[in-house]
Amino acid sequence: MKSVLTIQERLKDLRVERNLSLEELTKETGISSSALSSYENNEDKDISLNSIITLAGFYKVSTDYLLGLTEINKSSVSDISELKLDDETIDILKSGKINTRLLCEIIKHEDFVKFMSDVEIYVDGFAEMQIRNLNSYVSVLRNNIQAKNNTDDSEHYIKTLKACEINETDYFSRLISEDITKIAKTIKESHRWDKETGDANNPLKDVINIVNEYKNSPDPMKATLTTLGKQLGMNFNKMVASEVLFFKTLVEKYSSVYRSMLPKKGRGKK
């Protein structure tokens, strides 16, 4: 995921968060739906100062937020010192070395409080005494059983009791790992279809773009060859007719993908 939202993304997110259609937003702001749509989708579209002020006022955010000059969309009267951040932490946040937008999403996740609580319990040793007492109880029980029944360590019951003893570091390592993995997985799913997310050189993106470009094309063969060309790094436009014909013959004969793109015929087709 990328670090900074564009003006277009901010405008669309604010509208979607309020469950407003473009027509409804037009009624609220007096800005035409066509203009609002272009503001949200066209990066080259100039947004008038009046529209920026109107939209900022309607959404109750600062114009700086809409313009991408800050990530804070609400004015805050609290002093930064109240956040208990030290100078080194502030320098790191301002350095650009970490994705602060991702950090914000992690912090806002519903399980982040649990994650921090588990880390705090481990770091401060809040559970250390309870775990030690539990292990001592299990150990005494195991020793008593062995002494009473003359049972060695290889017995299944004794091995089970031994396995009941808790290693604090192992336990919290698993717990904390599960916490942060769950948070990361949720955020990953929410950004699965972001164009900025994932491998920038993933050939699947090229295929998806081609499919979108030719999904209504009357020429499935052209779409298929273009997709194949992208995957193989070949430019079919530079081939002579006989070379293109060779590939077309192979596609027509062996490609189930190409056949699935052809108009359906026969029973049930209107």
List keywords for this structure.
mainly alpha, 15 helices, single chain, 64% helix, disordered C terminus, 270 residues, flat, 434 Repressor (Amino-terminal Domain)
Nutshell version of this structure?
The protein is mostly helical and 270 residues long. Helices cover 64% and strands 0% of the residues.
Can you describe what's shown?
The chain is an all-alpha fold and 270 residues long. The chain is built from 15 helices and no strands. Helix 2 packs across helix 3 and helix 8 runs antiparallel to helix 11 (168-190).
Compute the number of helices.
15
Which structural category do the helix and sheet elements fall into?
A: mainly alpha
Biggest sheet architecture: none
Helix content: 55-70%
The shape, in one word, is flat
Count of discrete structural domains: 3
Separation of the first and last Cα atoms: 44 Å
Mean pLDDT: 78
Q: What integer value in Å does the Rg equal?
A: 30 Å
Strand content: under 5%
From N to C, what is the helix and strand string?
A: HHHHHHHHHHHHHHH
- Low-pLDDT runs: 266-270
The total count of strands amounts to: 0
Layout of helices and strands:
Blueprint: H1 7-17, H2 22-29, H3 33-41, H4 49-59, H5 63-66, H6 87-95, H7 100-108, H8 112-124, H9 128-149, H10 156-164, H11 168-190, H12 203-214, H13 220-232, H14 241-254, H15 256-261
